[in-house]
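Let us work through a complete example step by step.
Step 1: write down the sequence.
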Amino acid sequence: MPLEIERKFLLGAFEPPATAVRQHIEQGYIAIKEDGTEVRLRRIGGSRVLGIKRRASAAEGSPVRIEVERELGEEEFAELWPATEGARLIKDRYTFEASGVTVHADVYQGELTGLRTAEVEFGSEAEAEAFSAPDWFGAEITGVKAYKNQTLATRGLPES
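Step 2: predict the structure and record it as tokens.
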């Protein structure tokens, strides 16, 4: 199974570097289970993707999740997208190299305007644990339910 090992952080004011690649993302959730398992749809530019994620272990807040994604055709996506109503978000993702890692900085739109996060993916749990976040990253929110995209899409911004 393909694993996703990532850590997530809040960002303050953010100006993407000139080298950043921007992707506009529309994301909606078809199903969200109590254990955090999710089935989502994503429109990223010309791509349409069905994705399933679940925790790889029972450890709450673990940075490791199993992730499976499959490309969908436009017609398939259009048929499924209405099932995500009430559980959607929109963001611009800026991907760039910084501090020796690839950073995915998300700038949220719509009801989530003002929220900015950074995610860093790793090849192993040891790499994730050894990572020292740069000073311009804010508080770490890895595993914080209020900041998971599925929660943001269904409940909006956290209160604090």
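Step 3: interpret the result. The helical segments are 74-80, 125-130, 149-155.
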